[in-house]
Specification:
Organism: Catenuloplanes atrovinosus
Largest sheet: 8 strands, parallel
Structural class: alpha/beta
Oligomer: single chain
EC number: 1.1.3.46
Helix content: 40-55%
Number of domains: 1
CATH topology: TIM Barrel
Protein name: 4-hydroxymandelate oxidase
Strand order of the largest sheet: 4-11-10-9-8-7-6-5
Strand content: 5-15%
CATH superfamily: Aldolase class I
Radius of gyration: 20 Å
Number of strands: 12
Pfam family, one: FMN_dh
CATH architecture: Alpha-Beta Barrel
CATH class: Alpha Beta
Distance between the termini: 24 Å
Keywords: Flavoprotein, FMN, Oxidoreductase
Amino acid sequence: MDRNADPVTADDFARAAAGILPAEIWDFIAGGSGAETTLAANRTALDSVFLRPRVLRDVSACTTRSTLLGRPVDLPVATAPVAYQRLVHPDGEAATARAAAAAGVPFVASTLSSVPLEQVIEAGGRVWFQLYWLRDDDATLGLVRRAERTGCDAIVLTVDVPWMGRRLRDIRNRFALPAHIRAANITTTDAAHERNGHGSAVAAHTSQEFTPALTWSVVDRIRQATRLPLVLKGLLAPEDAVQAIEYGVDAIVVSNHGGRQLDGAVPSIDALPEIVDVVRGGCEILLDSGIRTGTDVLRALALGASGVLIGRPLIWGLAVGGERGAARVLELLATELRDAMGLAGCEDIAAARRLRTTRTPSVSAGRAAPPAVQASITAGWTVA
């Protein structure tokens, strides 16, 4: 990256990535499902959360350090599991894992990683393994054992993908993976590479590989297969959060999959308060979908989350500058969070979680998009 043109926000990285990535790869990463209603609503809902800062607090030693799953982190952040990262840079997940290790946050490696899990582990940081339950039960449990054997710190079971949502950008593009990009952790067919007239080859591939018969019994099976902490990702209903606690999970991720599964699903930040109310400390609660700034992280903490997962901005950083670009995204997030915490009178994460918030309906009821977002729409892409 040109030092004189270094991005200073996630939106800056998005603009830069949009200018260099092939259109169909940009669409695959940036797009959502259906009319992308939930994709847009995630951002609008976050912008409707306003913080009530405290004053006359000593924030001279403001710290963003916290814990996730009982272990220390430099930020209350983990990376979201994003598939096929070599689409945007040859080093793919290995580079983002090194960036996460340098930032002192967990890297969540996807089942559909384009770099084998063992190479991700070599980055030297803390790694959680995201699990899709495959149609082959033995192969899936083999992934769990492999994650434990290679030194992963947790299993993150994604529970909101019985099949891939209808991502219209990919359908219109008839998107297929390039021949050199593969799901490196699983033995699979060539379906994801076979461009055809019926839509997304990646969606066809996941339909072949993932079971739509995923039920709560799988949680017990994972518990029997490993002693690693278990996280369920993709919950939005309080009833499911209560059931997750009954099954003894260690954490849940309140998530609508970044607007990529059910279009019309509630924004994650809107679902968070009610889930916090019913969980009552029974497990850790993380949040993803739409997180772009340190202020967003503070919003989530103030509404009861233990931390957040960040996805697309890291991929934009990876596309623009490889490991250095991904690292810069996390550096900016840390700077923004510390700035927001200090200005809100929060000396640490515990104080951040005591902040009060208010919602401003005018933001979600049609206020014009910020100039940066308007510019992105004009350019043919979306920041959300």
